[in-house]
Design goal:
Outer membrane protein assembly factor BamD; rod-shaped; 13 helices; mainly alpha; about 325 residues
């Protein structure tokens, strides 16, 4: 008896589901705009967003050009948004704003499009094209609706996205430092600040610029070190001038004293602020000229040495040939 009762209940549930499915399919294929309109909102209110989205999409053909057109198109996008289909929802809202710029739904549609774009952005290691697209859309929204209630959220999104771009630029340049390519590291880090002087990692970037120039000088051949230590001193002075209380200051102070020692200059830690950068610029030019003269001299000596080696080889060959001739006689 229990088995029969269970079977009847199960069959009733199946028939009910089939009936509901058939009813939904009938609605979906119906040309009755009023019936479909009411049903779409019913599903939307019941949070059955996937079904609501399909009905609104189908309904958009029937209401095209009518007074319901913008409402149907907006809720089509909103249903996809609530269903977490942000890619489709972004397309819906983008089309909506283009078609109904004066609709009362337009400001919210633009904001929801921004939210969809934001949700589709990627972490900083990956392609940042979606990030740039979202930033552009947010800036346009802020400019057009400066007093909108969503402005605070938009600014938070903007801060997060800009930081993501800053992180990508900083980490990409810092990679050269990790690879111990200190010339490329300094150039890349300086370019980061050239592109965006307000980078959130500015302090770290200035620190690694100074560290790159110091390590490059330290690892250079002796004849090149003085000129390159002067470059480090420039970077050091730039750092302490802007960030005198930085936690990096102590480490850079130590390197500064070492560089001064290598340059044969007296070091007075109490007079760091009185150092004249013009003196370093003049000495750098002088050292650069001396380095060029030395390079030319070395190349000349190398050529003369190579010529001597060739001449000695010729003489040796002649002596060998002469000795072999004497033995034959």
């Amino acid at each position: 008896m229990k088995h029969i009762r269970f079977f009847i209940i199960a069959m009733a549930a199946v028939l009910s589901a089939v009936s509901c499915k058939s009813q939904y399919e009938m609605l979906l294929n119906s040309n009755d705009a009023d019936l479909k309109y009411d049903a779409a909102f019913k599903y939307f209110d019941q949070e059955k967003y996937q079904k609501a989205a399909a009905l609104f999409e189908s309904l958009s053909v029937l209401t095209n050009g009518t007074e319901r057109d913008d409402t149907v198109r907006y809720y089509w996008g909103l249903s996809n948004y609530r269903n977490s289909d942000y890619y489709t929802a972004e397309t819906n809202f983008s089309d909506f704003v283009g078609s109904f710029p004066r609709s009362p739904f337009a400001p919210q549609a633009r904001f929801l499009r921004i939210d969809c774009l934001y949700r589709q952005t990627l972490r900083y290691e990956l392609d940042q094209s979606p990030t740039n697209l979202a930033i552009s859309a947010i800036n346009e929204y802020i400019a057009e609706y400066p007093d909108n209630e969503n402005i605070g959220v938009c600014r938070d999104m903007l801060d997060d996205l800009n930081k993501r771009l800053d992180t990508k630029a900083y980490e990409g340049a810092k990679l050269y430092y990790k690879m111990e390519d200190y010339i490329a590291s300094r150039v890349a880090l300086r370019n980061v600040l050239k592109d965006n002087s307000e980078n959130v990692y500015r302090e770290d970037i200035l620190y690694y610029i100074a560290m790159s120039s110091y390590k490059y000088a330290h690892l250079s051949v002796r004849s090149k070190q003085k000129e390159r230590y002067l470059t480090f001193i420039d970077d050091y002075l730039n750092f302490v001038g802007e960030l005198p209380d930085s936690p990096y200051r102590r480490e850079l102070d130590v390197l500064y004293r070492r560089a001064q020692k290598e340059l044969g200059r007296p070091v007075d830690t109490e007079l760091f602020d009185d150092i004249d950068e013009k003196d370093f610029a003049k000495e750098r030019k002088r050292l650069a000229r001396e380095a060029k003269i030395e390079d030319r001299r070395n190349r000349k000596l190398l050529k003369e040495s190579e010529a001597d080696v060739v001449e000695e080889a010729v003489l040796d060959e002649e002596e060998i040939n002469s000795a072999e001739t004497g033995e034959k006689k």
